């Protein structure tokens, strides 16, 4: 609960405004939001409702609404911090007056605000998340803040020296929706034994069908594979063409036997030095 409960008579006003998860608050709500969260919200910032749609359609009067704050980058989408590939930052595409703009959300920019703001304001019709994939990426990124990738520490140590180069290569993975990885074996290995690495760079079927998007993705994948190939103890695919897939090509078997690999800034919670240096796990 956040402050006083919303009067029951105001609940229909929230329902009538038809709020859904991923909707953006209009600029006219920024003053009230700013007072609630104690942070400056510029006119070109976006505040996005992340509470579940079910909680917004017929809200409990005592509900506090979760929001995140995004700031414009003024640049093109950075693939290394899109689609949940960074624990600390997420970039999203927002349609602003029919033109796409990139906004960045930091992990600490998550707040609770009173429900009555939704009764007083309808969602912004001029600024909306570019597509459902952007909303899904936001939700998955927030959920993943409470998880860690299940990759062997021996694998993570082998890419440590090249992690910055991996992040740079990933910047151009703008059209790659998800990355899946398979290791043979899925276990810790001594330094003198190599992992066989399987990779799948998955695009949405819509973008996979566009020649220019697929070409852009292949160029980025080729650079990323080249960096991985410089890591000791990894055998990686030689042909980028064999690693690019449409989401229509993925099966439940693939989901079970491969793992999402989105976090090039991964830090193992088993690494005591990381905890000592940063105070984080």
Report on the architecture of this protein.
The protein is an alpha+beta fold. It folds into 2 domains: 8-144, no CATH class; 153-278, Beta Polymerase, domain 2. Helices cover 31% and strands 22% of the residues. The chain contains 11 helices and 10 strands. It has helices spanning 11-16, 30-37, 53-57, 116-120, 132-144, 153-159, 163-170, 205-208, 211-229, 252-257, 272-278, and strands spanning 46-49, 64-72, 89-96, 99-114, 127-129, 178-184, 195-203, 234-235, 244-246, 259-260. The strands form 2 sheets. It has a 5-stranded antiparallel beta sheet with strand order 1-2-4-3-5. Strands 6, 7, 8, 9 and 10 form a 5-stranded mixed beta sheet that branches. Helix 7 runs antiparallel to helix 9 (211-229). The longest helix is centred in the C-terminal third of the chain and has 19 residues, at 211-229. The protein is elongated, with a radius of gyration of 21 Å. The protein starts with 10 loop residues before the first helix and ends with a helix. 31% of the residues are buried.
Reconstruct the topology from this structure.
Blueprint (H helix, E strand, L loop, with lengths): L10 H6 L13 H8 L8 E4 L3 H5 L6 E9 L16 E8 L2 E16 L1 H5 L6 E3 L2 H13 L8 H7 L3 H8 L7 E7 L10 E9 L1 H4 L2 H19 L4 E2 L8 E3 L5 H6 L1 E2 L11 H7 L3
Parallel strand pairs: 7-8, 7-9
Antiparallel strand pairs: 1-2, 2-4, 3-4, 3-5, 6-7, 6-10
Helix pairs in contact: 7-9
């Amino acid at each position: 609960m956040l402050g006083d409960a919303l009067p029951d008579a105001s609940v229909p006003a929230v329902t009538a405004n038809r709020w859904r998860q991923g909707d953006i608050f209009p600029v006219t709500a920024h003053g009230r939001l700013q007072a609630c969260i104690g942070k400056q919200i510029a006119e070109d910032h976006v505040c996005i409702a992340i509470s579940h749609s079910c909680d917004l359609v017929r809200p409990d009067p005592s509900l506090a609404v979760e929001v995140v704050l995004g700031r414009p980058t003024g640049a093109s989408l950075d693939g290394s911090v899109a689609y949940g590939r960074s624990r600390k930052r997420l970039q999203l595409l927002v349609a602003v007056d029919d033109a796409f703009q990139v906004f960045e959300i930091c992990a600490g920019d998550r707040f609770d605000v009173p429900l009555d703001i939704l009764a007083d304001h309808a969602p912004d019709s001029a600024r909306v998340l570019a597509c459902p994939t952007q909303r899904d990426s936001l939700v998955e990124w927030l959920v993943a803040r409470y998880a860690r990738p299940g990759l062997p520490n021996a694998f993570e140590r082998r890419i440590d020296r090249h992690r910055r180069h991996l992040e740079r290569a990933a910047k151009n993975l703008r059209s790659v929706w998800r990355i899946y990885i398979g290791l043979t074996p899925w276990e810790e290995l001594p330094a003198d034994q190599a992992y066989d690495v399987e990779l799948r760079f998955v695009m949405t079927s819509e973008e996979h069908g566009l020649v220019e998007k697929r070409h852009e993705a292949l160029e980025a994948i080729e650079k990323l594979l080249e960096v991985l190939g410089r890591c000791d103890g990894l055998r990686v695919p030689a042909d980028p063409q064999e690693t690019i897939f449409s989401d229509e090509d993925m099966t439940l078997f693939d989901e079970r036997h491969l793992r999402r690999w989105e976090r090039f800034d991964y830090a193992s919670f088993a690494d005591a030095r990381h905890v000592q240096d940063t105070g984080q796990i």
